[in-house]
Amino acid sequence: MTLLIVTLSIAALILLISAARVNAFLCFLVISIAAGLMLGIPAEKVVQSVEKGLGDTLGSLVIIVFAGAMLGKLIAESGAASQIAGTMMRIFGIKYIKWAMVLTGFVIGIPLYYGVGFVLMVPLVLSIAYRYKLPTVAIGIPLLAALSVTHGYLPPHPSPSALVLQFNADMGLTLIYGIIVAIPAIILAGPVFSSTLKGIKSQPLDTFVSKDADVIDAPGVATSFFTALLPVLLLAASSLYPYLFDTTSSVGKIVALIGQPSAVMLIALAFATFTLGINRGRNMRQVMATYTDAVKDIVMVVLIMGGSGALKQVLTDSGASVEIAAMLKNVDLPPLVLGWLIAAVLRACVGSATVAGLTAAGIIAPLLVQTHVNPNLMVLSIGAGSLMFSHVNDSGFWLYKEYFNLNIKDTLKSWSVMEAIVSTAGLAGVLLLNAVLP
């Protein structure tokens, strides 16, 4: 009976989001309360359970996600992102332009939220294709594959960060493992797959073609790269430090403090405030206005994550998670594959990678404890599954279709297949990494 109630609750969630077009945050709240009542939580305690789930999830995520959004917005508005893209073009040239797109997407995709990265970078891709008479789709897909992977796999992006906290994983190790898994996935879905797409004709609308920007006041190349990558460098350094040095020393304790994800994002944001803001002639009020706009861009995503935390808490408090975990333990699939599969199915149904990943995490979390699976790898497995086969119920599908001015068939052949490759290659990478890790 418990499994039936949970299944019906998730089905109702999917229908409300995808068919009825109800806001995902409100869907999570309504379904969480209804599921709690059906699963036997006393009526007077259901709302308390929902509030606890919201508070626990948002309390640990707000700093990371909002600071990350602020950093990404400043990188975009300051011209640092354009500097990174221009540098990649100069290094690789037209002959190896796909690799320039891959690296640009990867570097910019780490600090920038996916939607911001797409809207910022795709017009540049379209302009390059127009200027040099290149196949638009074939050079755009490598950049979008990199943006997609960083969005689905790597902290400090919202969904991976939330999964890290739900599974009590290590943010730095997840990032390191994620980069290892991401590289082959991006290569396969980007330069390799895009070589088969030269026959797709695309005539982007002039509206979406970027005009040559004035970069006189843009930050330097070194500053742009270092500021964009600072969160990655700090997280990686703090994770590697215990393997190289004594963690009980005074320096070790300081590293432990500044290596916390929230502290890392605050340090990176403070650094960017001066390197990309104050030092570029902006006053503090202008920089803070940029940060305010960034919060507006990301607030609904954060609320959706809070809503998913509410559903997870209801499943936990009712005992449903333990029952489901016991059932799933007998399924003849490795836990990492099972986590990927649940996320992939939800992604196909809901369309949102964030909703799919966080919902799958609530289902699979108890199994993680029982099977002793590496939590860092489970984050990556579910993250990869949440990217599986984007189609007509995903806003990213339509964003890509309209910017590249394609028909549905060509959008499915390029965008949807690219997302499927990213997802399956990610699962393969996770399983290989799981086989070699102690």
Q: Main sheet?
A: none
Oligomer: single chain
Q: Report the structural category.
A: mainly alpha
Helix content: over 70%
Output the helix-strand order: HHHHHHHHHHHHHHHHHHH
Unreliable spans: none
Gyration radius, in Å: 22 Å
- Let me know the average pLDDT: 85
Per DSSP, what share of the residues sits in E-state strands of 2 or more residues?
Answer: under 5%
Number of domains: 1
Which word captures the global form?
globular
C-alpha end-to-end distance: 39 Å
Q: How many strand units?
A: 0
Number of helical runs? 19
Entry keywords:
438 residues; 19 helices; globular; transport; Gluconate transporter; gluconate transmembrane transporter activity
Describe this structure in words.
This protein has 438 residues and is mainly α. The chain has one domain (2-436). It is built from 19 helices and no strands. The chain has helices spanning 2-19, 24-38, 43-78, 80-92, 97-109, 114-132, 136-153, 158-166, 171-194, 221-244, 250-258, 261-277, 284-317, 320-329, 335-350, 353-371, 375-385, 395-404, 408-436. α15 runs antiparallel to α16. The chain is globular.
Blueprint (SSEs and pairs):
Blueprint: H1 2-19, H2 24-38, H3 43-78, H4 80-92, H5 97-109, H6 114-132, H7 136-153, H8 158-166, H9 171-194, H10 221-244, H11 250-258, H12 261-277, H13 284-317, H14 320-329, H15 335-350, H16 353-371, H17 375-385, H18 395-404, H19 408-436
Helix pairs in contact: 1-2, 2-3, 2-13, 3-8, 3-12, 3-13, 4-5, 4-10, 5-6, 5-7, 6-7, 7-9, 7-19, 8-16, 8-17, 9-10, 9-17, 9-19, 10-11, 10-12, 13-16, 14-16, 15-16, 15-17, 15-19, 16-17, 17-19
